[in-house]
Amino acid sequence: MRIYWEVVKIFEGKLVMYIYAETPIHPGSGTMISEAVDLPIQREKHTDFPIIQAPSLKGVLRNSACFIEIDDKCKKCDKKSKVDECEILNQIFGNPEGIGGVSITDARILAFPVRTLKGVFGWITCPLVLDRYKRDLNLAGIKIDWSTQKLTNVEEAKVCKNSNLMEKEYIYIEDLQLKCSKDDEDVNKIAQEIVKALPDGDTYKEIKEKLKKDLVIVSDEVFADFVSLTTEVITRIRISSKTGTVERESGGLWSEEYLPTDTLMYSLILIPSRLNSFKLEEIQSRIMRCDEKILQIGGDETIGKGFVRIKLVKGEHIDVKKP
How does pLDDT run across 261-273, given as a tens digit for each residue? Predict the structure, then answer.
């Protein structure tokens, strides 16, 4: 409780940033941690769950600020020559010589798309992910009324009452058969809550309806296996201009790992009270200009990777008395 009070005291504004993958994402770790993939994605050390590290997200928001016109003066600004000198960007996102502006947390996985026997595909999540999500929303001042019970049997799963993925009393994910329970009302509540992370508008109407029905809660162990073993891994080659074949002498053959399309993640944007040059409402309104925008995260932009749709949700002010 004491730590929670200190966080609330330091950060007077909170935004939840949802990240929906429109194309596969490669937030590269920069190092080869196994012989299976040359260029793996970023992962938590203790869970091996995929993440997008905070510096990457902050850099994306800062670099995109001019193009989404975070300030009305952006229309008249010479972006190429003055972006590093922009006082608004330095105040909000920080600069190398001063305090780093707003705080952005690592993006955590919320729902991971998987292939299913029925319904083409669905999303999986797990009690560990949901408990984290609930705590993070609580930090942002967003209260939710569902709870999850830990699945002790790795061969079981919980689905929504109107799920399209069930075959009799089972669901088949990749080559795994799981016995389903659809009596838990909280699964429907969780699906309804996660749907709020998707962008608004008619464009996302069908995918929202699918997520309301085709969310599956699996055990922590099964979830860990799927996010480790069912990411996209592709082999890329570099062709020699002289021979027209693979460039063997300079590493012309390598593999890359991607988070698949339709992956859903989230991060928190925390606005500290020390940013007193702007009022809280002004900072929030500027950052909210990223809402519903397409941004590019990670590597391989020129081959269409890393395009995501951002959705921002304002948290509530929390008045917590010191314990």
Answer: 999 999 999 988 7
